[in-house]
Amino acid sequence: MLRIDKSGPGKSLNIQTEGALDLVNLLQVVRRQKWVIAIVAGALASLAALYCFVATPQYTAGAELLIDTQQARGLEVMPQLTGMMDSSGIDSQVQILQSERIAKAVIKELKLVEAKKKEIAENGNSVFSTVAGFLLPFLVSNTPKSDYELERTLIGDFGKRLRVKRIGLSYVINIDYRAADPSQAADVANQLAEAYIVDQLEAKYQATRRASVWLQDRIAELRDQALAADRAVQDFKAKNNIIDTQRGLISDQQLSELNTQLITARTSVAEAQARYERVNSIIKQGGVTGTSDEVVSDVLNNEVISRLRTQYLDAVKREADWSKRYGPDHIAVLNLNSEIKGLQRSLFTELSRIAETYKSDLEISRAREASLSSSLEQLMVQAKLTGQAQVELRELESNAQSYRALYDNFLQRFMQATQQQSFPITEARLITDASPPLRATSPRTTLIVAGGLFVGLLAGFGVGMWRERMNRTFRLPADVERYLGLDCLGVLPLLPSSVATPVPAGQSAFDSSTGIMRQVTSDPFSRFSETLRSVKVAADVSIHSRAVKVIGIVSTLPKEGKSTVSANFAQLIAHSGQRCVLIDGGLRNPTLTRRLAPGRSAGLLELVFGKATLEEVSIVDRMTGLRFIPAVVPGDIVHTNEILASEQMSAVLDALKREVDYIVIDFPPLAPVVDVMASTHIVDGYVYVLDWGSSNRDLVANTLQNAPTVYEKVLGCLLNKADLKALRSLEDYGSKYYYHKYYASYGRES
């Protein structure tokens, strides 16, 4: 913000930025925003406590599984294949325990799908579910899910509830499962270990079977003899394009499979035709709305339609609510109706796109049917030729059977040796069975509430800091020094409504002994009066080291209390026995004249232009002896700044200086007009009035930056219309301004 170095002449304006927050500033923010922080922290802590209250308790059961690679060595034919398992091997077993294969086995063994179906059936018969399904048929579906869908849902939930980890560097794996039923948690944990052991047995068998394929190289010589015997048969088959399998000729199999595929293809064509015709009929029946129940059921898995349906239901709900609240003809309701129609059209468009997809599927199915029909006809011709060649093939196969019998005998012996390596034993065994837990493991009420309170404190502090940053007004005397580089001469309290009662029209405020214009005389020991005394002291001990006799009262904008301060300040000087003249310098809007000298016909203009004398234009307050020169303006005056800057105005003030001790001038606001900047040569010092909690410091700083000559003569600032109760909560107890609260009491109690 603005700051002037007044140590020497000719200094220019500098911008003073806001300093970084230190610990003291942070503590002050906490003290000023303590209620905001408390409310936010309390709200989040209450939400956390509410969550703990409504959350379903969860129980965790744990089992321990040992991976022991030494227990099966004595039973294996080739024990050298089994070795010690390293750390990565144990981590691999952890991943196997968390695999979908094991989860499926547990779900199947414990019949969790059937249990889930029973639970859904029981919940579906409840009153709440029935009412919800009736009121929201599109949101709550009464159609039961298939076993596959339930299984996929349980698998996804299974992974979230399961936690498998290795205990330290040992070969022990801990299995924890969390469920709402403690018995179910224990059953799942134990069954998971059993399913893992069974899976290991199956995996070992499969590994041995695959290893036997590699070991067949050991009987390569026997296989060569058998191949030599079959070579003649194979050559004949290749020559005559005969491919035989255990189930018969490949051509016959192809013919059978092709016939089956043709039947399937025709079925697919019929299904595609039915789907396409159904969607077309729905489109024709639904019109442009696209919101029929059949559409939703037919495209239930379509993500776009699901999202549009959600938006459509939300819009319909809001339209009903807003229609009830504001009426159906309200512009917001009409706009929402337009949005609903747009969503309906979007649903219709997406449905049309799906219809095109079904049409494409229909065309593909028809093309596949035609291709299969053509292939079937070709195979039937080939089958006739193959049947004739089979007569000679049987004679060749009879010669090869004797050679194959010998090969089969040796192969059978090899398989017997291989089977001896596969024993029903694994490296894993359960060492700790899971038992139903007695206490729930979640929710952790203390931790969650403490976390919510901590987060609430952080959020509350953030909200408080945001409020502090967004407040760009003057609330503390220190703000004046920090952002303007000026002294704060005092804080004027907001006067009570009984004191601030306006004077009746046509009556001068000097005619009454009370009122807002008489505050310094009616209550001389008040904080308001004492603050204005500090202004006079500041003028007497001016930093310019010269007498200050002409004092201008200015503000940034209208209605900041400048005129009230001017009248009371001038009365304070006059009441002390010193000669003082109060001049209304607001030639465009003479507020002070309307309140102190209504109905006057001559004033400052006549005095400046020599058309009247001081006694003719001024009025004298009988109570204080203050002389007031009003500003009687016959009409709109454009060049008021030239009048204030004229030599005649300087001559009038010079003459008044010789007769009085102080001259107080009530100037117009500094931001809207330039009159104040034209008066710097006739004013010895300015008192800047700021509206407490209202004057924007950026506007004030920019205004003073554009008027450096005024800024150089500012004696200090007054924070006017301050809320003392709020100020006490904002002031720092160590601040030099805190003594202001003793103004009213000092001298009365002694």
Attribute tags:
alpha/beta; Rossmann fold; 3 domains; eight-stranded mixed beta sheet; four-stranded antiparallel beta sheet; 26 helices; 11% strand; cell membrane; GNVR; membrane
Q: Return the CATH class of the largest domain.
A: Alpha Beta
Oligomer: single chain
In one word, what is the shape? elongated
Strand order of the largest sheet: 9-16-15-10-14-11-13-12
Number of extended strands? 16
Helix content: 55-70%
- Continuous helix count: 26
CATH superfamily heading of the largest domain? P-loop containing nucleotide triphosphate hydrolases
- Output the structural class: alpha/beta
Radius of gyration: 49 Å
Model description:
The structure is a single chain. The chain is of the alpha/beta class. The protein has 26 helices and 16 strands. An eight-stranded mixed sheet has the order 9-16-15-10-14-11-13-12, sandwiched between helices. Helix 4 (100-109) crosses helix 7 (147-161), helix 5 (112-124) crosses helix 7 (147-161) and helix 10 (250-286) runs antiparallel to helix 13 (331-419). The longest helix has 89 residues, at 331-419.
